[in-house]
Structures are given as C-alpha cells and as structure tokens.
Amino acid sequence: MVTAGKPQPLDAWEMAVSQVDHVAKLMNLDPNIKEVLSHCKRELIVNFPVKMDDGSTKVFTGFRIQHNDVRGPCKGGIRYSPGVYKGEVMALAMWMTWKCAVVGIPYGGAKGGVICNPKEMSRGELERMTRRFASEISIIIGPEKDIPAPDVYTNPQVMAWIMDTFSMTRGYSVPGVVTGKPLAIGGSEGRNDATAMGCYFVIEEACKKLGMEIKGSTAVVQGYGNAGNIAARILHDKGAKVIAVSDSRGGIMNPDGLDPRDVLAHKEKTGSVVGYPGSKPVTNAEILEIPCDILIPAALEGVITAENAGNIKTKIIAEAANGPTTPEADAILFKNGVLVLPDILANAGGVTVSYFEWVQDLMSLFWDAPEINTKLNRIMTTAFDNVYKIAQQYKCNMREAAYILAIGRVAEAYQLRGIYP
Length: 421
Ligand code: NAD
Known about the structure:
Blueprint: H1 12-27, H2 31-37, E1 42-51, E2 57-68, E3 74-81, H3 86-102, E4 108-115, H4 123-137, E5 146-150, H5 156-170, H6 194-210, E6 218-222, H7 226-237, E7 241-247, E8 250-253, H8 260-270, E9 280-282, E10 294-297, E11 316-318, H9 327-335, E12 339-341, H10 343-346, H11 349-363, H12 369-394, H13 398-417
Parallel strand pairs: 3-4, 3-5, 6-7, 6-10, 10-11, 11-12
Antiparallel strand pairs: 1-2, 2-4, 7-8, 8-9
Nicotinamide-adenine-dinucleotide (NAD) binds near residues 225, 227 and 322.
C-alpha cells in the first residue's frame, strides 16, 4: 500500500498493525495470537559493498523481513527502489502472510528490498548488487525457508541471478529458491498472466453473485502495465466492452469499446495509451468515475478515497493493484452497494502461480498453461466463495471478510502447533 519515496500519511507498518487490530475485534481473536501476529518474526538488515563501474565502492542497504512462517515457508517479492524503508518492507511482509492464507497456499509472508535507483545503474552494477545481496540474505532464504520473487523494479533476470548465486553457495542448482524465473531455468507457464487471470476469475464469481454477465458488461482499467493490460485483454476476450484505460500519462475512453491488444501496440509504439486513434482523452481522476460495471484499479495505491468514492458508479471494483482503496472509501463504497474485491484476494493469482512454480521446481515436473489455469481457477474460485460466505455471515465488506479468513487460518495454525517451547 506504499509507493517507495512518496510521503505516507501513516507509517505502512502502523497501518498494517491497525488492520489486524480492527479485524481482531470483529472476529474476537485470542489476544495472545494477536500479539504474535503484530510482530515480524525475523528482520535482517544488510549493508554490503558493491564495485561500481567507475571503480568506486558503494555500500547499499537491503532488507529481508519474514513476518510469519507458521503455515509454511515465507514468500514475498524483492523491490529495488530509492525510497524503500524498513516499515514498508515489514508491512508488505505481513500483507503477504494474509494473501497466502486467503487463497490457502501453504506459505507465510516475507518481503525484501534494496535502497537503490536501478534506473541509474548499469546492467553490470545491477548484477553485482543483486548477487551480493543474494549472498547476504542466503542465510535466511531457501526453498524450505523463504522464497523471494519479483516486485517493483525486479524481474525474471534478477531472479535468475539470485538463483544462480544461491546455487553457487550450495554447489548444485536450486531452482526452488526463487519464483518468477525465466522459463528456461525452471519458471512456470502462466506466470506472466497470473495476476490478471486470477483477478478475472474472482470477477467472474462476483458477477454470478450479482446476476451479471461478463459478456456485454462494461469495464474500466486504471494502469496499463502487467496487471492492467492483461486484465483488459482477458475481459475483452470474454465479451466485455473495455470502455476506458489509462497509464501514468493519462487515460483514453471510447464508449463503443477499445481493442486492448491494439491499445497495447499503440502504447509500445508511442510510450503511452494516450492519443490512441478514435478515443477521447480522460484524466486518471476522471477515469475512476466513468459509469461502468467493472472497475479495475491496476496502478497505484490510495487512488479511491473519501473524496471520490461517492462518485464511483460501478458494480464491482477488483483491486489488481495493492492498496488502491483507503479505509474511509471502503466504508462509502460498502454503503453504496459496490462490491469491492480486495487486493489480498483479487491480485493473489500472482503468488498462487508462484506457488505452482515452486511445486514444479521441487518435483522437476512441469505443467502446461491449461493445467496451470485450471488449478488457478479452482484456488481463486474457492477463495472467493470462502470470503463471500464470511462477508454474509459477519455482514461485513469483502476486505474485512478476507482478513477474517486469513487471520483465522494463521491463528488456527498457532492453536494446533502451540507456542514453543
Ligand atoms: P507495471 O509497472 O507493469 O504497471 C503499472 C502501470 O500503472 C503502468 O501502465 C503505469 O504507466 C501505470 N501508472 C503509473 N502511475 C500511474 C498513475 N498515476 N495513474 C495511472 N496509471 C499509472 O506494474 P504491475 O505489475 O502491473 O502492478 C500494478 C499494481 O498491481 C501494483 O499495485 C502491484 O503491486 C500490483 N500487483 C501486481 C502483481 C503482478 O504480478 N504484476 C501482483 C500483485 C499485485
């Protein structure tokens, strides 16, 4: 829920803990378990030197923070950003614990980060920094312990370097130490589309509950990167009319519908969706208020607030982005009958296919894309149903319900395992 480098109204970690406090009251959580869950289990900070291209040596600071591993090894991405800070990484680690628990995959949560500006570094500097960071955190990561993945400004190549570095310390190849790897070295089919595909599966379930058809519905997508453009493409292929999309430079609208593949080709050619032939320009603020059936925020956190929530005219909001809706906005949307599919459910397809990648690496047996999507569909549909039932039972919104499900699963694991010694 935090963009590195951007001033935050509330420290990310404080906000993450206050969410646990809120849900603990709703579900009557054992205060002893709440106490455990309000801390990160392990926090590693490393300061490490890297030889730069100009011959100088620069010391970088990095973090690997494990919130919880009671349900299985920790899982979570690594971000490279000038503004990444410890509280942010702690909060992101906690959110990963909940995300994995909501979809019922056997992982706890972790997150990592290095304070750096990858846009100003050469490929060689990035590789040396990544390898040294991987070596520094190799004491706590591993296929049975903690499995990193890509996040902001890290990608399959960075994962390949981490896998190689870790493997060198062991003396044999360990593909299961990271996910999001290139296919050639143990990556999974379907990983690229996973977040958008998972988001689509929960939208499909939400439509069934609301008696809506995807075919013929209208959709608006804010953000046209990995999550957003693929979500637009899938919805279009399923018969929805994608009437507006945007990226950091602005948005475009066409009430007759846009062709997402053609829009992507335009963005790849010109650098933005803006200026797409036959479309009308809209701002990133206006795009959220366009009347539609399905709204997908797939860019930044904190875009749906108390100021604009009342003007949103949609039936379903599917949070492909992390943290797009503020708690005040949540309350307004709930009152107005908008069904919000919260981030820890709606974008959990990414970590779910990461889990499939890890399983395939451990088995050395690989599935094809249809098999991956069938398994993903089953997990996302089940998670949606579980969350929806809790929302009905507690008469709460889907976010609170998702947290009740997630925290309940982690609490159950503690009750069964007990507190050591
Ligand atoms: P990305 O970098 O591929 O794309 C981000 C998009 O948002 C770009 O099109 C960018 O132009 C646009 N954008 C940036 N600033 C904007 C602004 N002010 N207004 C409108 N658009 C703006 O990133 P992504 O991987 O698609 O991630 C998007 C969101 O989804 C993030 O919140 C991320 O945490 C979340 N998410 C992604 C994945 C995944 O697997 N990709 C998984 C879980 C969650």
